Amino acid sequence: MSAVEYPGAAACPACVATSVTITRAGKQAAHAAEVTVLALPGVHCAGCISTVERGLIARTGVAEARVNLSLKRVRIRHDASVSVEELTDHLSALGYEALPLDMVALSSTETDRIGRELLMRLGVAFFAMMNIMLLSVAVWSGASDATRDMFHLISAAIALPTVIFAGQPFFRSAWASLRNRRLGMDVPISLAIILASSISLYETFNGGDHAYFDAAVMLTFFLLGGRYLDHRTRAVARSAAQELSALEVPRAVRLTAAGEETVAAATLLVGDVVVIRPGGRVPVDGVVLSGESEIDRALLTGESLPVFAGPDARLSAGEVNLTGPLTVRVTAAGRDTSLARMADLVAVAESARNRYTTLADRAARAYSPLVHLLSFGAFGVWMWITGGDVRHAINISAAVLIITCPCALGLAVPAVVTAASGRLFRAGLLIKDGTALERLAEVDCVVFDKTGTLTLGTPEPRDLALQDAADLAVVMALAAGSSHPLAVALARGARAHGIVAETVTDLVEVPGYGVEGIWQGRRVRLGRAAWVGAAPGQDTAAWLQVEGRAPVAFVFDDALRPGAAALIAALNRQGMPIHLLSGDVPGAVRGLADRLGITDWQAEVLPADKAAFVQALVASGRRVLMVGDGLNDTAALAAATVSISPASALDAARVASDIVLTGRDIAPIAEALRVAKKATRRIRENFAISFGYNVIAVPLALVGLATPLMAAVAMSLSSITVTLNALRLK
Are 462 and 408 within one domain? Predict the structure, then answer.
């Protein structure tokens, strides 16, 4: 079954305005009735993106097409008259296998299969290359006549099956390119391999002095190495929109005249009444009709503490009901819920960001046609010079093609990304996306979430040592009757100060308010300000009321994440603009901003507003680094130029991010910014090495001073040089 989606509420205007979309003139995406997402296992470069998108847009009934390179999928907005089968057939005609977006096509098993296949072909090429080199050494050492021909035949027996088997990724890609009348990087690669093998076979059967089977297999080995490195940089990318969908509650309990019935949440209608029991996730957007409870909204709004929900309170899909049963009237269900709209925001932002092409892809657009022009030009000139000596002209043409083969270009980015990824992994950062380092190097402003990002999301009592010991003893006893985060933090803090709990009887937790009991014949309460008769303040606090006494406040701060202060100080020294966006209350956000020295902050920011804020920065030309951890940050993470999440973040936030912090310390982000700039310099240096190598080597091949074997050796040396330069990052 294909993933056909029916748009619900429209994404925010900023999302639509900033997404990059290829739309055929005269078509309006808004007129399309359906959106289909298909997996494209064969896409791997910017040329593939252009071919797929332009090819689909040219088809009648398709209004919009957007390829996500990291996830190898295409999102197509089309008329209802266009079937999924017609779309897959059209993509097949373009040279790309299209699969329904099911769990098999997107699973890590499929990704692992592709990686294992590349690694297997790489191993076969390496084994064959080593054996052919041994035979070649015998020829170079003076073997001649029948002995030389025998070694060449043995080399052919090893090389030809190896090239046919190991070179399939390049041959398939090249054939798809040629079928669509374009020249991708794999076309000159395939021609070089085929020419080197063909010339070698011709020389072998005609008793020639030289054969170049070692050159053909060496080319295949190095190019497979570059392809495998590139695959590994993309292997961990997954869809954040898919993870958000996993948070949707599939079933709900609906109240009817006959009683309760369990139904699919997607079938609920506006006005239906549902029951949400303690511990359950809210399946719909709605308004509370009856019941009182506390709601965990951290995933959606970033609020660090549960909030009270009573009659007329509004709930959103994805929130968690903590303490009491609630009866809720449905205001939105299925694709119209806030959770579904957030998934749509993320999908749009993911596709827009992943249209970023690597430096290697951009360089290849001009490089590939030039390779063919030089090779065919050399063939024509030498045919004229030699009076029609086809054998000599083909040898020189093959040498030019091999010596200009984009092997070093193919390794330039993956080698650097691999080296930089290793260095950052040891520092506590996992790079998930192959273009993340290039984007990170361009960052000129940083946006932070608060709870769970700059803080740990765990409350810490402030100035507990200044509180009365007797009050703390009562608090410890009351806190034992509640699992509320503030109660747990108070009990832990009091215990750390050596406080022994008093004896409190008749403990009762009142959902949404707090816990109460009897101490020395007097009623005592620990909970909300309004419940104990106190005036709420700006700070996060729990209140203790002992009957006959004025309420006492216990104020809390959110514990700073290790390295937060050092990171903000480092960014301030660099003159980097810093923005703090949080869904938490103003008092908590202001307190954190003051502690860290952040002047630009906003509180009570909704998820869509976070995404719109980031998109507005990107639209103004800023290169934004977004650091966040919650479901409420996911759309903003996907919309940013580059994004980072802690390992403790929600799954959806982690998969929406390009980089994941593997430890608790956030300070390594400053190191990531430095390494990213160095990595980008190394990539450009590698391009300079490749260009310089061609400036020297190509003229030698053009004038006939380099055989195909010499060309393969020179090409290999350039690849090794590029790799060694990348390793300087370590």
Answer: no
